[in-house]
Amino acid sequence: MVPPPHFSTARFSTYRANPDHPSQARALGRLEEIAGQVAGATRRGPLSFLRRKPTVPAVYLDGGFGVGKTHLLTSLAHAVTAELGDGAVVYGTFVEYTNLVGALGFLPTVEALAERRLVCIDEFELDDAGDTTLMSRLLRELADRGVALAATSNTLPDALGEGRFAAEDFLREIQALAARFEVLRVDGDDYRHRDTVTDAEPLPDAEAVAGADGREGATVDAFDDLVAHLATVHPSRYGALLDGISLVALTGVRPVTRQDEALRLVVLVDRLYDRDVPVLLGGSGEHGLFTPEMLAGGYRKKYYRALSRLGALAETGRRLLN
After folding, report:
1. 279, 197 in Cβ contact below 8 A?
2. What is the mean pLDDT of residues 222-240?
3. Residue 263 near residue 231, CB atoms below 8 Å
4. Distance of CA 176 to the CA centre of its chain
5. In which order are the strands placed within the sheet that holds 148-154?
6. Is 40 helix (H, G, I), strand (E, B) or coil?
């Protein structure tokens, strides 16, 4: 549970704050301060009850898709690691933490994470009441033990500019922890230019196959076969499916109409993006991949994030063909 390869070189110094959106520079500066605070904090000893309890940083990055929240979060993780060494920070997505609890049990997870100085949670999700309650309890236990916390989540594109980001929902759901979290708003446009990228015409199946032919580490699969196979593998193992894979070519890509299939695809896209694996999409490509009902439903944030990331990976794949 470390920052994904896509952000292995992300640092505060490489974040390019957009001058048109001053909140980006403010968030950057504040996180640099928090990194110093976490790295300079001293763990309380056995007689800590005799001293005033120190303030433990807890920060929430709130903004739309592609404004650099994950870049900032991973930069925070790298900065603290550089000061305190490997093992001081644990990093994962919301789903990875719920998977960890499922694998170890709640109390063993708390004990393992409490040894860290900073816990980073990317893509905090609010669409599953049970998982949200579980994570709220986990964060409370860690904060009580002096662990610094940092989290991100997404605002829907149609909520941008309204002055109401996801922070309101986040703070309501974490209840007892809300007062401890500092909200940093990160405004801006999607640097992956989702609307432009996903308007690109899909590749003919034959071109997608030819693009993978002879390329080391490339795979070619029919979309329906992939969808069927994902149902046989636990989502926590999707990353392992991509070990050694340099390019994914899919033929016969079509809209998915079942929610369970769509959610599995979201997890796969996240793992592809984490590992910078470009894709070649035949069939209808990303056009209409998720139905209008899905994009208006309770999991819409997941689907919009997946479209943004898939579009960027597809554009990378197209450049490989030139």
Report:
1. no
2. 91
3. no
4. 24
5. 89-93, 118-122, 148-154, 58-63, 182-186
6. helix
Residue 18 above 80 pLDDT? yes
Contact 223, 99 (CB under 8 A): no
Q: For 15, list phi and psi in degrees, rounded to 5.
A: -80, 125
Element (H, E) at 83: helix 69-84
Superfamily the domain 5-186 falls into: P-loop containing nucleotide triphosphate hydrolases (3.40.50.300)
Alpha helices in the chain (DSSP H): 22-40, 69-84, 94-104, 106-113, 129-144, 167-174, 194-197, 205-212, 223-230, 238-241, 259-274, 292-296, 300-321
Using an 8 Å Cβ cutoff, are 27 and 185 in contact? yes
- Residue 228: which of 260, 204, 255, 206 has the closest Cα? 260
Looking up tokens 């636990």, which residue turns up? 234
User: What does DSSP assign to residue 290?
Assistant: B
In order, the DSSP letters of 42-77 are ----TTGGGSPPPPPPEEEEEE-TTSSHHHHHHHHH
The structural domains of the chain, with segments of one domain joined by +, span 5-186, 194-321
pLDDT of amino acid 49: 40
Chain centre distance of CA 175: 22
pTM of the model: 0.70
Tokens of 66: 């592609």
Considering only CA atoms, which of 161, 170, 156 is closest in space to residue 302? Answer: 156
Taking only the tens place, the pLDDT of each residue in 85-115 is: 988 999 998 888 988 888 889 999 999 999 9
